[in-house]
């Protein structure tokens, strides 16, 4: 458990993303089903910046387990659909997660980024291969390795 999650539990603060899943702040939601929810980031780093979160609370990329693999594939498919709906070619876009302690909310959230970044600094925040950011394909590969006998 991260220190942020511990502090929020100690202070009885609910997870902000769980609050969104429960329907308490639906103003930015653009997709929802029983497994996941998508909404616009409140501080977009790029022309299109959408977050996709699982409906069930999963803390971070560090707590994702092999049974979550199919959910991640479903999140990827929805991300690619949303990018196309917003006029982007998916191969020119970024899909990934911040790695604790570099995440801001302790609820797994996939960053779906398309188009031009607002600044070079914001672009760097979502660079694959950095210690603070993991591409979705890398997370899926890590889980595939764990699932091999």
From TrEMBL:
Question: Does Nucleotide-binding appear among the keywords?
Answer: yes
Q: Residue numbers of motif Histidine triad motif?
A: 107-111
The identity of this protein, by name, is: HIT domain-containing protein
Give the annotated active site: 109
Q: Does the keyword Transcription apply?
A: no
Instruction: Enumerate the Pfam families for this protein.
Output: DcpS_C (PF11969)
Keywords in alphabetical order: Hydrolase, Nucleotide-binding
Ranges where the HIT domain occurs: 16-122
Which molecular-function annotations from GO does this UniProt entry contain? hydrolase activity; nucleotide binding
Q: Which InterPro entries match?
A: Histidine_triad_HIT, HIT-like, HIT-like_sf
Look up the domain of life of the source: Eukaryota
Source species taxonomy = Eukaryota, Fungi, Fungi incertae sedis, Mucoromycota, Mortierellomycotina
């Amino acid at each position: 458990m991260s220190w942020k999650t511990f502090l929020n539990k100690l202070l009885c603060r609910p997870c902000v993303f769980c609050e969104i899943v429960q329907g308490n702040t639906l103003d930015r939601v653009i997709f929802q089903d029983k497994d996941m929810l998508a909404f616009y980031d409140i501080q977009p780093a790029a022309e299109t910046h959408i977050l996709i979160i699982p409906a069930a609370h999963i803390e971070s990329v560090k707590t994702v387990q092999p049974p979550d693999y199919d959910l991640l594939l479903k999140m990827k498919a929805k991300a690619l659909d949303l990018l196309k709906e917003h006029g982007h070619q998916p191969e020119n876009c970024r899909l990934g997660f911040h790695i604790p302690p570099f995440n801001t909310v302790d609820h797994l959230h996939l960053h779906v980024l398309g188009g031009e970044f607002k600044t070079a600094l914001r672009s760097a925040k979502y660079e694959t291969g950095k210690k603070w950011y993991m591409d979705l394909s890398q997370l899926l590969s890590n889980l595939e390795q764990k699932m091999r006998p």
